[in-house]
Specification:
The structure is a homodimer of 81-residue chains. Chain A has 81 residues and is of the alpha+beta class. Helices cover 35% and strands 40% of the residues of chain A. The first copy, chain A, is elongated, with a radius of gyration of 16 Å.
């Protein structure tokens, strides 16, 4: 069966996020108030053909660790539908 | 109150996604099988101080339209927690 897997890769909470800071500056310039923090990361959507949701999650986890995220700077979250 | 708002910005389904294709090639090289399609987009996480979840969503929607996404190439989805 084909599962849709969503992977969210975000900068670690302990680290500064210059892209997020730039977005905050941009929102300020647009006059949008109320935004207190912005973090910018990647969203990867995969179609995985696997025997079970767990098997699909295992493939996504390996992909995240080996290719999609950098453990020094980022963490990832996986959601299987 | 402060709401956590997640915005997902993805390339339109009708368009090619070269970054996704590159990731698919990379996964192939790693020997990960079963991945049939990959789309790569942005994930933006905001902390918004607003009177209600609806107000927070309105701010996020304006930010998405004016700054975070390009309607010609991308669509966005907003989730308020």
């Amino acid at each position: 069966m084909t599962y849709t897997v969503q992977i969210k890769v975000m900068p670690l909470k302990e680290l500064l996020d210059p892209q997020g800071k730039a977005v905050m500056g941009g929102l300020d310039n647009l006059g949008l108030t109320g935004v207190e923090d912005v973090r910018v990361g990647k969203h990867i959507s995969l179609q995985i053909n696997a025997a079970s949701p767990d098997a699909a999650r295992a493939i996504a986890e390996e992909a995240s660790k080996k290719l999609l995220s950098n453990a020094v700077m980022e963490y990832f979250e996986i959601e299987v539908n």
